[in-house]
């Protein structure tokens, strides 16, 4: 048994579907891509994180972001303006750190420090930061893990966060 006006009813349903679906797909497509620098903590411990980068006015280091285990935090919101970023992190519960060979300034409490020289003379501490080459991507994500890396330090890997 066929409904009266069968092809017309199917056409009406098709038009209704297009009328409802096109705006939905357009709004999804119009959603801007995420652009930021995020750090994800894949450990079970609370981690304190500091970041360093080159700004127009010179080198800046800032911290501390406290990142609970199995969560992520955005350290820099919006499209990244530098190619290289530097990260230092400490495990607040078990000790240990994610560090590297680039010396920059940090403080015990929340900080934003201009410049990376004479840290101790200026009342700060010196810490070794790991460099991340973002390849000038608009966003980047670093994942801190418990897995040992070469040199015995815990591993941190960085990727284009898309």
Explain the overall architecture:
With 162 residues, this protein is mainly β. It has one helix and eleven strands, in the order αβββββββββββ. A hairpin with a 5-residue loop joins β5 and β6 (97-98). It folds into two domains: 1-31; 36-159, Immunoglobulin-like (Sandwich). Strands 2, 3, 5, 6, 7, 8 and 9 form a seven-stranded antiparallel beta sheet that branches. A four-stranded mixed beta sheet has the order 4-1-10-11, with no helix packed on it. It starts with 5 loop residues before the first helix and ends with a strand. It comes from Aminobacter aminovorans. InterPro entries: DUF1036 (IPR009380). It holds the Pfam family DUF1036. This is Membrane protein.
Largest sheet properties: 7 strands, antiparallel
Cα distance spanning the termini: 51 Å
Average predicted confidence as pLDDT: 80
The CATH architecture term of the largest domain is Sandwich
Number of strands: 11
Shape: globular
Relative helix content: 10-25%
Gyration radius, in Å:
24 Å
Runs in which pLDDT lies below 50 for 5 or more consecutive residues are: 9-32, 148-154
Number of helices: 1
How does the helix and strand content classify structurally?
A: mainly beta
Strand content: over 45%
How many domains, in number, for the residues?
Answer: 2
The CATH class assignment of the largest domain is Mainly Beta
Task: Provide the CATH topology of the largest domain.
Answer: Immunoglobulin-like
